[in-house]
Amino acid sequence: MDPKKKTVGFVPDHDADTTTSPGGSNNTNTVNSPVSAFSNTPDLSSTTNSTTSTPNPAGSAAASSQPRSINTSGARSSYEPMKSSYEEQWGLTPTSRPHKTASPRDGSGFPAKEQGGLNKKENKVKTSGLGIQPNAGSASTDGPQSSNSTSSAGPASAGGPPSSGNKGGSQKPSAPSQKSMTKAERRELQEKQKAEKAARVSAGLPASGKKAAQVLNQPNSGFSPNPSKSLATSFPGAEAEKAIAAAESTGQARRREKLTKEIGLFAHLDPPKFANTALAPKDLHPAVVHAGLQMAQFKICGANARCVATLNAFRKAIQDYQTPPNTTLSRHIQTYLNPHISYLVTCRPMAVSMGNAIRYLKYEIGKNLELPDEDARALFVEKIDNFIRDRITMADQVITSLGLQKIQDGDVILTYARSSVVQGLLLAAHAKGIKFKVIVVDSRPRFEGKQLLRALAAAGVPCTYVLLTAIGHVMREVNKVILGAHSLLSNGALYSRAGTAVVAMSAHERKIPVIVCCETYKFSERVQLDSFVQNEIGNPDELVNDQNNNFGHSSTRCHPSVRGANSGDAASAAAGAGVLTGWRESRDLKLLNLLYDLTPSEFVTVVITEVGLIPCTSVPVILREFLPMMQQ
Q: In which compartments does the protein localize (predicted)?
């Protein structure tokens, strides 16, 4: 016997009892439907009650079209013989998935094969897990549809297939698919979704609606979720303002500040770094920790100064290093120095000069792995001293001697910010008796040109100090521009303090030669075409006009008369407060403090190095030919 017939209780000799409820009542009309002995298809031509004889009111199921009934014995008498006619009516194939039967007892719509193997207790547990309440007023039957059920499982009046049971006896309307929407409706939906995503991001939450809802549901997230409306739905208008206010008052404020205060074009760069000795490894040498703190606070700035401070700190660390048992100094010293290097990187991004010096030190360590501890210690200290002497100190002296040939009496030399090499060259030219004048161009926020101005003025060099905004006015008097360099890239580009490119391009526009002083250990194999790919972001608070930042320069503070303050009121006491105080609370204000820029090679006339005067495009030649000989 067919297992399906066995499941529904097929009785071939019984007639079908069909229930017809046009008005939703419980009236029962019996229709004799003879069944052929060779097929399961009933003879529908002999039925006396059809769907055309009784009109079906709107909103009710077409019960006359489904020959379902339950006889007095509680068994399905002729449901299975009508199965093939259902397959023909609804276009189902014999291999199709069996439709789900709905019982008013559970209303969950399990397949008949699964439902037949569950008892009443199991059905109750199953429906409670789905959040579906059983219909207490319905008869407990095993048939596909009860006649007094609250919801009809038969086909709808529109001719749809039989629907499964649902919660509460009513079908919840589903959201329309995008295929059925018009183009304008789809565009409106997309705009709404974009607004919801932007509101979630502004609130310091994940962009995904599901992840945002998970954050709200966490007990320690800092947000108070609204049970009637989740973040996965929308954040329109005032709701977004409330969510942002909640984020600012919780632990999410820091993340919101990062999302809203960073500039999108420079989001790939590392944020400003601050030294944290509490998170540093405990076995760091004090000299390295001290150097890192000074670099983070910009008390040590400049490529040469940072490189020398790093090498001196490593020299002290090597001198005080105690070799662990069962190893040698040469083989373990590099493992010992790696945490120190990582700490310096966390304090401030490593300069090109520092990277080349550390690479040189590791190269020397790798060449001498078999030396005794004391010999290796003395050798490494000597190599550090030789690097500082040959590649920095002596290189600067050679650059100074070569640069003196380019300075003549009556020259007006313009320089930007402060470079230790340029400062030494100008002081040497003045000591030699050359009569010249210097124009120092400076810019916010660090005002490094003031240190150069102080040194030149103390030596008696005639100087003029202007800001970068006045370069167009003073450039007409200049006949030479001498600049320092943070690094020279392999494509000939000059990587230096932000504002250098403006000075070089202004001089190139007026046919004024641009001379760059740079040591060869600052040459880099990196290729860079703009200032966006690689740069360093400084602390944006340095741009704020208050006396606590910008190192207390009076030129960065507003005069009380500008704010309309009288000398006797409370505003005069806050005369040092800047106009951008509290800028972090402003949602639409973002500050960017880039430390370096890139000058293309066509704006540089000549580069003075310890190997001679070369064009900036000869950097690859120096890296390929001269540096291997210097390392031997």
A: Cytoplasm, Cytosol
